[in-house]
Design goal:
Strand content: under 5%
Radius of gyration: 34 Å
Distance between the termini: 85 Å
Strand order of the largest sheet: 1-4-3-2
Largest sheet: 4 strands, mixed
Structural class: mainly alpha
Number of strands: 6
Number of helices: 40
Shape: elongated
Length: 749
């Protein structure tokens, strides 16, 4: 009953507040003061008794008596949390009932300031400019201030690192449905501002999810649906868990979760939805007059029944949805359902999902949907050029509509050296696009002064941009202070929480180089490296060592990188042994040591790397200029089964390449073994066989085999100009019954 009273008061209040109008100085001061009052002090250890009894006020119809009894508690709550619109409207209703004009004026001024501040500059109309709220109940007065009413709402837990978004479908006076967006994270961060972790994007996101988790555990179905969409470990959608949570939330009467439920069922086969559940849920959504119900029905017919866009039922469903929303919205919405990499295989009609999606996007763009123009511009060039003037024109349309990515792409087209390009990039950055903020952050000393660039880099990092986070960490490390090391650790831990494998590899390097940062576990760096190896594979684990060798300030002490490679090699990772061998033989970060290099190459061979001895021979020949030693290793490698070692050895022996002594008989025997082992020899191996045949005087066979090599090289490597030129030169020799004999300085082909 109270909600009805509140909404009625909100409509009356919004008519006075004109939320779209520019903020005057006093209104801005009042609103910002109230938001600035949010702090950890607003969350007492024990709620004052007067506030603890406020629940009674919201469970009963408002009367002068109940307002009098709970006035102290209500005013105390608004002192602690002065941006609580829901309670301000309750205070306004009580002020009317008590005929307290001072309280009435105070409440009206607070409501007016908070509404206008929340909806300033068109906030709430796009996910990148959400209106700030304290809790979900504040949505209702803000939507009413826009002369709309709420149809459904849901959490969007993956759409942004910057926000905890609530998406709302609202209907205006003309019956048209719109999407609106509200953010709780601004308030949550303020209330937890004493915790230093809120200075980093990963923990801020975790804070938002922890609030959803606590509310879900308390039984809030809306929070349950938002939280259970999230796989905390993998930062991805857990389709089965999402389906179950959404079913429960829908059973509790939240239509927004019904929309999400059908989306998950249609787009994620792993959700394993019951077909009857889909059709029943869709019928219920349509009965509530929700436009997405008709759009989802069109999607269901396309995906489940494999109908085309010319099907009568599909057309009617799309037209109904379009009539209830903005032009092109429903078409774009259905196109986004058709993510072909996630849909089940087996569409049997002539139109693939990608073709249906393209047709929907084109139709949506023709009706003016800027997001469709942007997606078309990002798609295949042939697709992008159809319709309104090609990808460049589409990008300009997206930029003109204010889409941040459209502005970003348009800025890149114009070039950041131009004032127009820089202005558009700044606008995209101001709208919160982390990619644009990162671009501006990279312009220090060019178009922007270092302070402004640093601010944009900070903004990009707080927006979850992986490279920006790593740069912040490396800059902190290069301060070469304990505080800088801890700051780097915090940034990289945040990157790890956001799923950046490169940040995890840097974090492991920090722990290895500075074990004092983890006094309780000085071996944490190697433990993180182990986890990378298990979860992401050898490349990620080896990146730890590469960071230690090549990134300052780690690179000043190569012993750390050496220790990581030796540790990985001892676990049996042949790639680590190979890298140690390469660094020793080339003197790259480690002191030149031929014996140590050969040892680690041979260790890699023992660990299963078939090319290790071949690579050792290459290093001896090219890096250390020890031809005979390298050829001996190639001989050893060829006998151990390395076909490329055999190929290169045979070519050198048959042609005298690299200044080696010619031995065509030995070379022919080596290449013959290679052909015996391989069912389909590489075309270069045919070239080597031909060189050996020519060296032994069998020019007819040499011409046949070299023709095979040349034809395949021309077909498979048309841009390998030097290789092709060399091969044609050798063919000319064979055609004139001459062998190819290399000059002393010749190189392998």
């Amino acid at each position: 009953m109270l909600i009805v009273v509140v909404l009625g008061g909100c409509v009356a209040g919004n008519q006075r507040s004109e939320p779209g109008a520019p903020l005057d100085r006093e209104t801005l001061r009042l609103a910002t003061t109230k938001w600035a009052q949010l702090s950890p002090a607003a969350i007492p250890r024990q709620l004052p008794r007067a506030e603890a009894q406020l629940r009674e006020l919201f469970e009963e119809p408002l009367t002068a008596a109940t307002c009098t009894r709970h006035r102290t508690g209500l005013q105390s709550a608004l002192t602690r949390l002065p941006v609580d619109l829901y309670k301000w409207y309750t205070a306004l209703d009580c002020a009317y009932l008590l005929d307290d004009q001072n309280w009435q004026v105070e409440s009206e001024e607070a409501i007016d300031a908070l509404i206008r501040f929340a909806l300033r500059d068109g906030r709430g109309r796009a996910p990148w400019q959400p209106a700030p709220i304290l809790h979900p109940m504040d949505i209702y007065p803000l939507v009413a201030a826009l002369d709309m009413e709420v149809l459904w709402k849901r959490y969007l837990t993956f759409d942004s690192v910057r926000y905890l978004l609530l998406e709302v479908s609202a209907m205006d006076d003309a019956g048209r449905q719109h999407r609106l967006y509200f953010d709780q994270l601004e308030a949550l961060a303020a209330l937890n501002s004493e915790d230093w972790l809120t200075d980093f994007p990963g923990p801020r996101r975790a804070l938002a999810l922890s609030v959803l988790e606590s509310e879900a555990l308390a039984g809030d179905p809306l929070a349950l649906a938002g939280f259970m969409n999230t796989d905390i470990q993998g930062w991805s959608l857990n389709a089965l868990a999402a389906r179950r949570a959404l079913e429960r939330a829908w059973q509790s009467g939240y239509p927004g979760t019904a929309v999400s439920l059908v989306e998950v069922c249609l787009s994620w086969p792993d959700a394993a939805c019951n077909p009857e559940l889909e059709t029943e849920t869709l019928a219920s959504v349509r009965s509530l007059g929700i436009a997405e119900g008709w759009a989802l029905e069109a999607g269901r017919l396309i995906i489940r029944e494999q109908r085309g866009l010319d099907d009568v039922a599909v057309r009617e469903a799309l037209e109904t949805a379009e009539s209830m929303t903005g032009p092109g919205f429903a078409l774009y919405y259905v196109a986004e359902l058709l993510r072909e990499d996630e849909l089940p295989d087996g569409r049997t009609d002539e139109a693939s999902y990608s073709e249906v999606r393209l047709a929907l996007l084109q139709a949506s763009a023709e009706r003016g949907e800027a997001r469709a123009h942007l997606l078309l511009a990002l798609s295949d060039a042939k697709q992008a050029t159809s319709g309104q003037g090609g990808s460049d024109a589409r990008i300009e349309l997206a930029a003109g509509a204010g889409l941040p990515m459209g502005l970003h792409m348009s800025a890149l087209q114009a070039g950041l050296a131009s004032e127009r390009g820089l202005a558009m990039m700044r606008r995209a950055a101001e709208l919160g696009l982390a990619e644009s903020q990162f671009m501006l952050g990279a312009l220090a000393g060019q178009r922007l002064d270092p302070d402004e660039s640093s601010q944009w880099l900070q903004a990009a990092a707080m927006g979850g941009h992986h490279a920006a986070i790593r740069i912040k960490a490396i800059r902190a490390l290069n301060e070469e202070t304990p505080a800088g090391q801890r700051l780097a650790m915090d940034w990289l831990s945040s990157g790890m929480m956001l799923g950046d494998v490169s940040a995890v590899a840097l974090l492991a390097a920090v722990y290895v180089a500075f074990p004092e940062l983890s006094p309780d576990n000085p071996g944490r760096g190697l433990a993180v490296t182990d986890a990378l190896l298990a979860d992401e594979g050898p490349g990620a684990a080896l990146l730890v060592a590469r960071n230690l060798f090549e990134v300052a300030p780690f690179s000043r002490d190569p012993r750390h990188g050496q220790a990581v490679l030796e540790y990985l090699a001892e676990t049996g990772l042949a790639e680590a042994s190979m890298q140690l061998g390469e660094r020793y033989l080339t003197g790259d970060a480690l002191a030149l040591d031929e014996a140590a290099g050969a040892y680690w190459f041979r260790r890699a061979h023992e660990q299963g790397n078939e090319d290790a001895l071949y690579e050792l021979g290459m290093a001896l020949i090219y890096d250390l200029e020890k031809l005979e030693s390298g050829l001996d290793v190639w001989e050893e490698a060829a006998r151990a089964g390395s076909d490329w070692a055999g190929n290169d050895l045979a070519f050198v022996l048959c042609t005298g390449e690299l200044g080696a002594s010619q031995d065509p008989g030995r070379g022919m025997a080596v290449i013959a073994r290679v052909f015996d082992r391989r069912d389909e020899p590489h075309h270069y191996m045919y070239s080597t066989l031909a060189a050996c045949q020519a060296a032994k005087g069998d020019f007819e066979k040499a011409r046949i085999n070299h023709a095979i090599a040349l034809a395949q090289t021309e077909r498979q490597e048309p841009n390998a100009e030097q290789t092709l030129a060399d091969m044609r030169h050798r063919m000319a020799l064979y055609e004139s019954d001459q062998p190819y004999i290399a000059s002393p300085a010749g190189d392998l082909p």
